[in-house]
Amino acid sequence: MTTATATEVQNNFGKYLQLVQTGEEVIILRNGKEMARLISRDKSVSFLTDSLIGVLKKDYDDKAMTAERMARHESAD
Asked: Does 64 lie in the same domain as 31?
């Protein structure tokens, strides 16, 4: 996972887009706080699919899913 300021991303968008295309996630910071996450379409579809499966099964706990996702992303670093 890569972290960059909003200005860095604005000035070097192509560079960060290439990182995303290779599977990297880019966290965009503004004033030192996470404001956005740039991820590939495949990863976003996967996240939505996982969420919908839980909703359809009526087995959806957003806090648990968020914690699980964060743990996956932290272990990838």
From this structure: no
Question: Please, are residues 40 and 63 in contact by the beta-carbon 8 Å criterion?
Answer: no
N residues, the chain:
77
Residues 14 and 46 in one domain: no
> For position 28, which CATH number holds?
3.40.1620.10
Tell me the C-alpha distance between 64 and 15, whole Å.
33
Q: What is the pTM of this model?
A: 0.58
pLDDT in tens, 28-52: 999 999 999 998 887 776 666 766 6
Give yes or no for a contact between 52 and 60, defined as CB atoms under 8 angstroms apart.
no
